[in-house]
Write a structure and sequence with these properties.
Protein name: Uroporphyrinogen-III synthase
InterPro entries: 4pyrrol_syn_uPrphyn_synt_sf, 4pyrrol_synth_uPrphyn_synth
Oligomer: single chain
CATH topology of the largest domain: Rossmann fold
Number of strands: 11
Helix content: 25-40%
GO molecular function, one term: uroporphyrinogen-III synthase activity
Order of helices and strands: EHEEEHHEHEHEEHEHEHEH
Organism: Sphingomonas molluscorum
Pfam families: HEM4
Strand order of the largest sheet: 3-8-7-4-5-6
Length: about 220
């Protein structure tokens, strides 16, 4: 019998992940660890920048009224989901990276980008890069506290972590509930997320590329 797959990400991404899991014939368990909400952020002039760096679809969803001002900037996006969401709202995507933010920024630097505006969540991981002249948080992921019973029911499942922060948070809630990592298998969206999750898991797999479909595929391999 296959293990259930624990979906820890917030909406609206959680529903997309659950749909992929269900379509593949597996059982999803929803236990969100964060709630995403928009933040107020200062006005930014597109003329001050030569590119827009986006590392999550949530960023695009929370741009708010400044979307029109920034629509003139070429977009460098991490992941197909981010790129697709950006294109859907009228942004011009010129490059889609599959190796994470650092790799994308190195490529942007080599292409002559020197004044990129990097928009993301409040926990942007890369502190600075010569291709980036400004970093702004446009949304916040507020930690949730799932019930102890809900966390304990995850024992025996395969948990999907979509970011290093989610991996750290998951480790924390397991400890609070007295659930040993060795009772779960973990699928991480990137090597950084796997590193943040620490060791001691029954098994661990990293997605081939940092996308939700690839992460679901990695989790299914662990579930069988």
């Amino acid at each position: 019998m296959s293990r259930p797959l624990a979906v820890l990400r917030p909406e609206p991404g959680a529903s997309a992940t659950v749909e992929r899991i269900t379509a593949a014939g597996y059982q999803p368990l929803r236990t969100p660890l964060f709630h995403v909400e928009q933040r107020g952020w200062p006005l930014v002039a597109a003329s001050d920048h030569d590119a827009l760096v986006l590392t999550s679809a949530n960023t695009v969803r929370h741009l708010g009224p400044q979307l029109a001002e920034l629509a003139t900037l070429p977009v460098w996006a991490v992941g197909e989901a981010t790129a697709r969401t950006a294109a859907d709202v009228g942004l011009s995507v010129v490059r889609v990276g599959t190796g994470g933010a650092k790799t994308l920024l190195e490529t942007a630097w080599a292409a002559g980008v020197r004044r990129a505006l990097w928009l993301g969540g409040e926990s942007l991981r890369l502190s600075e890069h010569p291709a980036v002249s400004r970093m702004v948080a446009v949304y916040a992921s507020t930690p949730l506290a799932p019930s102890l019973d809900a966390v304990r029911r995850l024992a025996g499942s395969v948990a999907l972590v979509h970011s290093p922060r989610a991996a750290e948070r998951f480790r924390h809630v397991l400890a609070e509930a007295g659930v040993a990592p060795s009772t779960l298998r973990l699928a991480a969206i990137s090597p950084a997320a796997a590193e943040a999750a620490g060791d001691g898991w029954d098994a661990l797999a990293v997605a081939a590329v940092p996308t939700d479909p690839a992460l679901v595929t990695a989790a299914i391999r662990l579930a069988d």
